[in-house]
Amino acid sequence: MAKRDDLMTLHAELNQAPTAEALIAEARRVTGLDDLGGPARNAGLEAFTASLRDETWATMTGRARELCADFLLHYLCTRLRLVADRKAHPGIAQERIEKPLIVVGPPRSGSTLMHTLLSLDPDALAPEHWICREPSPPLVEGAPSAERRQEAEKRMTELFGLIPDIFVTHPYMIEEGAGALAECGSDILNMVCTSQQMWCFWGGATYKRYLLESDHTPALGFHHDFLQHVQHGQTGKHWALKGSDHMLWMRELAAQYPDAKLIWTHRDLAQQLGSLASVQSILLGLRGHPVSPEQRRAQGKRAIELQHAAVEKAMRARQEIGEEPFIDVSYHELMAAPLRTVEQIYAAAGRTVSAEHARRIEEWLENNNQTRHGVHKHSPEEFGFDRDEINAQFAPYVERYGHGFGIRPEVVA
């Protein structure tokens, strides 16, 4: 495996944004490998590097550029190694991904808590941050080395070191570090440069169009291959997954996993959108500069524009897919009765919550307070949100699910 310092030989001064072609060539040089799994899986990289070149690179500090270039190059090296692993272990391609539970609700809607509770099932598989950053060699070859886990921890710490406030909004990262649960919609799909997270980090309008308008079937094919890679050698398990990004490609997700249950979490729009705007304005700090109040408000509004487009796209896809795969969950019901909510989901999925799973949920809830590392303070008014405007903008969603701006928990619980 290449040392981390070896990954920064490309564009040492980084005065210009790296091209997709240059990044691929460098990844091949570093690893000595050639096969990335097909050119269709490079569409996200091409869109993202074009966005860097034309829209955002000039706004980033030198340190932010280093982190971005390393991020892209590392994941290209990872993809090369995953394809090589797949050739070396033919059994990986024989793995069947059956009846996964996938939380697909929008960001800040309770989806992380929902995913956590599902992952506590002893029969569930749920990806962790470290394996999404250092997945090679496959676990079938043995337990990962301490060095491998430490490298994943180092990468995560360096990236988010630019924005320490992110740990208040995601407190599990402090205690669990690279062992925290990963989002399959971003932590896996970052490897093929297809994620809302990357738009938040360093993307612009070009990349946003790619997310909203492209057919993401090749990216979801990679997602499937990655699950096969991690599952290989582990029997009797089902996947518990989560990705708010999946709202951008719900149709492709359902086609890739036709027997999945898609769990759509819903929350009062005043709370959900206010929290989303706040988090995504924090992520703007990954461009290396302090985020002014004006920039914070502007980024928050851009975040809501993308969220609105994602919700509309997901609702259209749901109409095409049909209702059978979907399970709707109220954030407010989840907070009031977590175990009962999981039991209802399992019943809808034809499963039963085991005694051990229930015990783990109760224990986790007793030991985890979401404000133990600070309170995420935000207000929809801070971003200039108007109740009537938001409810009008999200009218089809509000009419269908009842979670409008300012709907109180007692109304929707």
UniProtKB/TrEMBL annotation:
The lineage of its organism: Bacteria, Pseudomonadati, Pseudomonadota, Alphaproteobacteria, Sphingomonadales. Keywords: Transferase. It holds the Pfam family Sulfotransfer_3. It comes from the Bacteria. One of its GO terms (molecular function) is transferase activity. This is Sulfotransferase. It is an enzyme of class 2 (transferase). Coiled coil: none annotated. Its EC number is 2.8.2.-. The keyword Acetylation does not apply.
